[in-house]
């Protein structure tokens, strides 16, 4: 369907890559305009937009002209593989004596969305160090890459140009327009977090804020400038139109998608009389605590409540600097829906799909060819196909629709109407192998339906034979024909004795020792003391049940004895005591392989070394942290005590824990070392501020 997507991106540097995550019909057009700040450290002499799987003919409009120093760009097709064409939109300008240059942005630059152009809100554009670029497309690229360019010799018209290699990743909003039964559309917008580089860990967390408005504007490809800030007729939503106050987004390990990936997903009906939806997405850095093992963000308060540095909660803050913003819009033009309509059934009301959507209602819809199934009719005002079919078969028909703005669209549709030969059977429309009223189920998947299978649960037999169903004819009484000591699998299976050596009621084949381990300790790297006032912080110790059975912790006293935290002074200050902060609900049942977070509160009153530890000036840490788990508190020894303490080291990159099934890769515990392993000392730097 004809839809226009207008998007705008503010970024902080270098090279930006946006990966498309959905497929678009050829009639789906996109627009994108954005500000780029030059913080590469040197002047740049141009900019490139690389579009993958597009031809140069797909580029319908570009931003430039007198608005920017580079003028209008050149559009070059650089296809080497015909199956995957590439297009470069390249901004650069030879003044007659040198290549025009964008200077490095000064420290005070604070572009906020779309204002880096001649006469824009940024102020002195020529020395601002930021630029505004944009492009409109007839089709959507599978990947878009933005690059700053640097001339090898700015005074040579024939010089070579090189791309700045720095990367900046910001989530890219994805739109979709979905027809609704009975007419109208839903508009879906999804922002997925930045993908993790290591799929076994969480990705980079970010705070997100969203503003939204709906409009009756009919947006066109040349409307890029309507997403500029500070321009007459602009449509960017402001602070009064908040849709999402705050949300923490972070990609999860593996291949999660959508809401399972902590994405921001919104799907709402487009209100009557509206044609477009405009959103502004603002992204902020997350600066709070993280799980040292898998990088999971652990916000100070909650996933929808950021804590700024100037107002910490219990010494914790997690809201960092503004990282970027995207202004995007989708416009729904008059369009015919997809060709293949849902199947119908004789005598059953049809589900009322719309044949046309978008544009401005009411419509004028007429049949121009083919045959609509008997019993169905097209509403000439709404374009909805409805009714109760009275005739079975396959049908095809064409329509012509005009909206209130005189826009016209045509479409051809196919629909199949099924005639029910088993009207009294709600699950069948034809007798099949078993007849009406009897399902053609094949429980054992042997190709013979249950109604004809005398052994419906035995995939190897369709009749009992001499030994009966589920018994091979050659063994008949012996279920372990290759095991001279057993005639049935028992607990451990054929070939393995069901011996219980220790007499505890569990066979040796299932009897593994219990094992609790300290998997990580989360501490702040620095604690600031102001005017020598004591500072209280939270420290989290994570333990993991690596035994085969669940462990039950009945009450707070047991948990306090099970997990301990020691703070050792590295100088003359006394060692503070870690106070156990119990959870509210007991008993706690910790299943095999699951983890439990145990919190402690620690108060620091002095610094052994008041200086701050840095990469250039290390060695000023003041306290060492050690965590321990004691399985004996729950009764019985820990069969693998080497993982009961943190910090601890392993042979890089990991060691395989023998419990519970040999699949846990132990990378150690503590500060990260080389080759992906952990085990360094966990230390806290206390800094005294005047």
Outline of the structure:
The chain has 690 residues and is mostly beta strands.
The structural class is mainly beta
Global mean pLDDT? 82
Percent of residues in beta strands: 35-45%
**Radius of gyration, CA atoms, in whole angstroms:** 34 Å
C-alpha termini separation? 64 Å
Helix percent reads under 10%
Number of strands: 41
* Stretches with pLDDT under 50, minimum 5 residues: 1-30
How many DSSP helices?
2
Describe the largest sheet. Answer: 8 strands, mixed
Please tell me what the overall shape is: flat
Biggest β-sheet: strands ordered side by side in the sheet: 5-8-3-1-18-17-14-15
Please provide a written account of the structure:
This protein is mainly β and 690 residues long. It is built from 2 helices and 41 strands. Strands 5-8-3-1-18-17-14-15 form an 8-stranded mixed β-sheet. Strands 2, 4, 6, 7, 9, 10 and 11 form a 7-stranded mixed β-sheet that branches.
Features of the shown structure:
eight-stranded mixed β-sheet; about 700 residues; disordered N terminus; flat
List the helices and strands and how they pair.
Elements: E1 3-11, E2 15-19, E3 28-37, E4 46-52, E5 59-62, E6 74-77, E7 86-91, H1 125-128, E8 130-137, E9 143-151, E10 161-163, E11 167-168, E12 174-179, E13 185-191, E14 206-215, E15 242-249, E16 264-269, E17 276-286, E18 319-332, E19 335-336, E20 344-345, E21 356-357, E22 364-370, E23 376-378, E24 385-387, E25 393-402, E26 408-418, E27 516-522, E28 526-530, E29 535-545, E30 551-553, H2 556-562, E31 563-569, E32 579-581, E33 588-590, E34 595-604, E35 623-629, E36 645-646, E37 655-656, E38 665-666, E39 671-672, E40 678-680, E41 682-689
Parallel strand pairs: 1-3, 2-11, 20-26, 28-41
Antiparallel strand pairs: 1-18, 2-9, 3-8, 4-7, 4-9, 5-8, 6-7, 9-10, 12-13, 13-16, 14-15, 14-17, 17-18, 19-21, 22-25, 23-24, 25-26, 27-29, 29-34, 30-33, 31-35, 32-34, 35-36, 35-41, 37-38, 39-40
């Amino acid at each position: 369907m004809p839809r226009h997507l207008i998007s705008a991106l503010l970024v902080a540097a270098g090279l930006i890559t946006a990966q498309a995550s959905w497929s678009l019909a050829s009639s789906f057009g996109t627009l994108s305009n954005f500000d780029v700040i030059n913080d590469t450290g040197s002047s740049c002499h141009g900019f490139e937009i690389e579009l993958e799987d597009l031809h140069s003919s797909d580029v319908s409009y570009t931003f430039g002209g007198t608005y920017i120093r580079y003028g209008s760009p050149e559009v070059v097709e650089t296809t080497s593989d015909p199956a995957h064409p590439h297009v470069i939109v390249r901004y650069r300008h030879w003044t007659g004596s040198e290549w025009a240059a964008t200077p490095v942005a000064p420290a005070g630059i604070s572009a906020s969305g779309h204002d880096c152009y001649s006469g824009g809100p940024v102020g002195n554009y020529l020395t601002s160090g930021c630029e505004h670029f944009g492009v409109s497309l007839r089709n959507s690229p599978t990947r878009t890459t933005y690059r700053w360019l640097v001339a090898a010799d700015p005074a040579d018209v024939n010089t070579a140009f090189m791309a700045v290699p720095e990367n900046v990743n910001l989530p890219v909003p994805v739109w979709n327009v979905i027809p609704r039964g009975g007419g109208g559309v839903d508009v879906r917008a999804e922002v997925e977090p930045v993908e993790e580089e290591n799929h076994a860990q969480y990705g980079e967390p970010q705070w997100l804020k969203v503003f939204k408005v709906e409009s009756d504007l009919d947006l066109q490809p040349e409307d890029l400038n309507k997403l500029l800030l500070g321009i007459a007729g602009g449509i960017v939503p402001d602070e009064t139109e908040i849709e999402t106050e705050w949300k923490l987004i972070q990609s999860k390990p593996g291949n999660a998608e959508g809401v399972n990936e902590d994405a921001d997903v919104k799907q709402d009906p487009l209100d009557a009389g509206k044609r477009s939806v405009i959103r502004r997405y603002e992204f902020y850095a997350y600066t709070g605590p993280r799980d040292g093992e898998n990088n999971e963000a652990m916000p100070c308060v909650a996933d929808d409540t950021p804590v700024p540095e100037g107002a910490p909660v219990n010494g914790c803050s997690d809201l960092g600097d503004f990282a970027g913003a995207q202004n995007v819009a989708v416009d729904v033009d008059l369009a015919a829906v997809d060709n293949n309509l849902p199947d119908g059934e004789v005598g059953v009301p049809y589900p009322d799909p719309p044949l046309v959507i978008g544009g401005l209602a009411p419509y004028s819809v007429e049949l121009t060819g083919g045959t609509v199934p008997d019993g169905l009719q097209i509403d000439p005002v709404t374009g909805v196909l409805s009714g109760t079919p009275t005739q079975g078969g396959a049908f095809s028909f064409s329509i012509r629709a005009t909206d209130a703005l005189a826009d016209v669209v045509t479409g051809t549709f196919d629909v199949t109407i099924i005639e029910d030969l088993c009207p009294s059977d709600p699950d069948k429309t034809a007798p099949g192998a078993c007849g009406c009223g009897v399902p053609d189920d094949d429980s054992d998947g042997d190709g013979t339906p249950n109604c004809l299978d005398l052994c419906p649960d035995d995939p190897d037999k369709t009749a009992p034979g001499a030994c009966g169903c589920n018994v091979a004819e050659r063994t008949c009484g012996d279920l372990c024909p290759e095991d001279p000591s057993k005639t049935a699998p028992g607990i451990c299976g054929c070939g393995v004795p069901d011996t219980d050596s220790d007499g505890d009621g569990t066979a040796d084949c299932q009897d593994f020792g219990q094992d609790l381990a300290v998997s990580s300790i989360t501490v702040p790297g620095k604690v600031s003391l102001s005017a020598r006032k004591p500072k209280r912080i939270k420290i989290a110790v994570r333990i993991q049940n690596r035994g085969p059975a669940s462990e039950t912790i009945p009450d707070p006293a047991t948990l306090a004895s099970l997990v301990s935290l020691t703070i050792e002074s590295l100088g003359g200050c006394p060692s503070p005591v870690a106070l156990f902060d119990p959870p509210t609900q007991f008993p706690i049942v910790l299943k095999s392989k699951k983890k439990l977070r145990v919190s402690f509160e620690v108060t620091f009153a002095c610094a052994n070394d008041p200086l701050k530890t840095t990469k250039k000036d290390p060695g000023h840490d003041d306290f060492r942290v050690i965590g321990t788990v004691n399985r004996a508190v729950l009764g019985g020894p820990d069969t693998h005590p080497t993982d009961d303490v943190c910090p601890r080291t392993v042979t890089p990159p990991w060691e395989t824990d023998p419990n519970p099934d040999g699949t846990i890769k132990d990378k150690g515990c503590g500060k990260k070392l080389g080759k992906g392993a952990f085990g360094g000392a966990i230390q806290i730097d206390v800094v005294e501020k005047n």
